[in-house]
Amino acid sequence: MKIKKNPVENLNDAVNNSMSGDLNGISKIGCFPMIILVVIIFFIYLLVRFTGN
Fold it and tell me: Which of 12, 15, 29, 38 could form a disulfide with 33 if both were Cys (CB 3.0 to 4.6 A apart)?
């Protein structure tokens, strides 16, 4: 996130990041860890979906 001199834009960026999260950290981890993360999330989804009644 770039620091700007305009306080309204800074507030807008802060609200957007608090609602959607700052995804820069995820995009910097690389391809292989991202694939592992997606697979783990998928398995957690399957566990929740098929073990709950």
Answer: 29
Half-sphere exposure of 38 (CA within 13 A, CB side): 9
| Helical residues (DSSP H) of 1-53, grouped into ranges | 7-20, 24-27, 31-51
CA distance 38 to 25: 15
In angstroms, the Cα distances linking 53 to 15, 40, 49 are: 37, 22, 8
Q: pLDDT 10s digit of each residue in the chain, 53 long?
A: 566 576 677 777 776 666 666 666 666 777 888 889 899 999 999 999 888 75
C-alpha–C-alpha distance, residues 43 and 38, integer Å: 9
pTM of the prediction?
0.47
